[in-house]
Amino acid sequence: MRRLLLFVMACVALQPARAxxxxxxxxxxxxxxxxxxxxxxxxxxxxxxxxxxxxSLGAQARVxxxxxxxxxxxxxxxxxxGATNWQLNADLAYGVGPLGGIYLGAGLAALNWDxxxxxGDDRSTSVGANxxxxxxxxxxxxxxxxxxxxxxxFVEDASPFRLAVGANFPLGDRARRARRRQEx
Length: 184
Known about the structure:
Strand content: over 45%
CATH architecture: Beta Barrel
Radius of gyration: 23 Å
CATH topology: Porin
Shape: flat
């Protein structure tokens, strides 16, 4: 019994402490608890499809589900040679960092494109999947939140790579400010 007790005490005494890489900086400890809940936002974005050699213009909304998880419906029009194609997305984005600057996501995509490439009426619509990684400015009080996003869409036998940049505009800030003024 004495040996078992000594063994348990030695195991407890020799248990490794948390590694420095696992510790959060002191100024970020508990930061999520003091941040305001994320607000819904709308945004505009532009980008480039490297596979189709086409520029894009689109819009999106960000609807918070939890503090780190957001539903992101979006749509883009692609302007290539001779035809305009479009894509609709229903994605989920997950904020990785403590302040939500880096995010990862995946979702569904519906694409409509000119099937023959001649700009005629022969169009095709397909459903696929998206994966993406992005970086959004983590500023809390900024009136606009710029972002950059790398996106892959997997549809049929293709997986085009797209790069998008844009800005999200948080909703509901004016109403919150008006209530604060009335309370004063």
